[in-house]
Design goal:
heterodimer; A: Rossmann fold; B: 10 helices; 86% helix; 0% strand
């Protein structure tokens, strides 16, 4: 599939990043169409998180371009940020707010207004969190917090999900819930880029192994 | 603008859940100022003479005490990434953080100061001048302090560094704040001083949000 084809929603072209003066990865090229999941694999320190942060424009990249629907995202970073849902390696929850308040606050910070109760319930229900909604986030376990952060991602309704180790601290049923949420998102034409050690078990997932410089994938 | 309101609402709600954090700052302000009359003794003239300087310095130190936490909690729990990724301008978010800080420290400090001023024997005009200058001057402290807090993000022992960065920048505010109270006590008008304080606040308002946003982006890299 040519890079200029309209079916390609996210095109990463010849991307290179340095951290602390050291090259982390270079010549990374990936094309993703709607409904595609890209799993970033590789050893610790191979640059999975750096690539995710570079995609979100949180970390500057030294070479290459990131194109969303044919346009360089660096030209309109605010519009680009509106397309993203972010799950970092820390959960981004405020310990003193309840789980539901955390989700509402995060959604309002995205400029999306207060989510309707039905959307909030759907996001909480996707990770079986309805019973915990009124609990302060600091009283939750690591796995529960991770599920809450994933519910925040589901709530955004953003087309591109950037997930850093989404399966961290998740038990079996929660991993199944994550798989179901990913499949629903991909089914509606969404795109997922996930840094992961554990296989996500999604049919048709693409894999990009980082750590060996000078590798690319089309 | 909705992001601005959302962030202020979130921060105020967080502070309401932890009233102790604000309580400690106000208690420090009261303790620090009350020590002066106790240490110097009942020399009303001397106390009235130093009242403005002591109260202004104590307010500055009290504000500093709470500034260290301004961005560190967001930095530690990952909420800073969400701020950086919010579609709206980061400058507005930086301004919202400083505004929330002022509402819970600068504003109560300004309202508490005249009560403490009584223990220094300040007369009525002095008390009015003190409250007015603090109300106009403390937003500057929150803005400059916000810049210091953003610049020291991720630095070990950021608190000491923050004080070193922020205190020199607050000197003009301190000089005109105390100058206004002295002018009022001597019977001159303090409106000139107040206007200059307002100008400094506007200058801080027009510059610091951009600098804070740049520092936050740097910290997020």
């Amino acid at each position: 599939m040519a890079a200029s084809s309209p079916a390609v929603a996210l095109a990463i072209e010849d991307l290179a990043c340095r951290r602390g003066g050291r090259p982390v990865f270079a010549h990374v090229s990936v094309n993703l169409a709607g409904g595609a999941l890209l799993a970033l694999t590789g050893r610790n320190g191979s640059g999975k998180t750096t690539l995710l942060r570079a995609l979100a424009l949180l970390t500057p990249h030294q070479a290459g371009t990131i194109k969303w629907q044919g346009h360089d995202v660096a030209e309109a970073p605010e519009a680009w940020r509106g397309q993203l849902a972010w799950l970092g390696h820390v959960d981004g929850l405020k310990g003193d707010l309840t789980l539901a308040e955390n989700l509402v606050a995060a959604e309002r910070l995205r400029g999306a207004g207060i989510p309707s109760p039905s959307r909030l319930d759907a996001a909480l229900g996707a990770f079986d969190l309805a019973a915990l909604a009124a609990r302060p986030a600091r009283t939750l376990s690591a796995g529960q917090r991770r599920r809450a952060a994933l519910a925040r991602v589901v709530l955004t309704a953003a087309p591109l999900w950037l997930l850093d180790e989404p399966t961290n601290a998740l038990d079996g049923p929660a991993q199944a819930a994550l798989r179901a949420a990913l499949q629903r998102h991909l089914g509606t034409g969404g795109i997922v880029v996930a840094a992961t050690h554990a296989p996500l078990d999604i049919a048709g997932a693409q894999t990009l192994e980082l750590g060996s410089l000078e590798r690319g994938m089309a | 603008m909705s992001v601005f309101a959302a962030l202020i609402a979130r921060d105020l709600r967080l502070m309401r859940r932890r009233p102790g954090d604000v309580g400690v700052v106000l208690a420090f302000f009261v303790m620090a100022t009350v020590l002066f009359p106790l240490g110097i003794g009942p020399e009303t003239n001397l106390l009235a003479r130093i009242a403005a300087g002591v109260l202004w310095c104590a307010a500055l130190f009290a504000a500093l005490l709470s500034l260290e936490r301004l961005f560190v909690t967001d930095y530690d729990d990952g909420a800073l990434d969400l701020l950086l990724l919010a579609p709206g301008p980061l400058e507005l978010a930086a301004l919202a953080k400083c505004a929330a800080h002022w509402i819970v420290t600068g504003l109560p400090l300004s309202l508490l100061a005249p009560i403490l001023g009584v223990s220094f024997g300040l007369d009525r005009t002095g008390l009015v001048a003190l409250t007015c200058t603090l109300l106009v001057g403390t937003p500057t402290l929150s803005l400059i302090g916000g810049l210091g807090a953003a610049l020291t993000l991720g630095a070990p022992r950021g608190g000491a560094l923050l004080a070193l960065l922020v205190l020199p920048l607050c000197v003009p505010t301190l000089i005109f704040g105390t100058g206004a109270v002295e002018a009022a006590v001597l019977g001159d008008g303090f409106l000139t001083h107040l206007a200059i304080l307002g100008a400094i606040a506007l200058l801080a308002l027009a510059t610091t949000p951009w600098a804070i946003a740049a520092a936050l982006r740097q910290a997020g890299e």
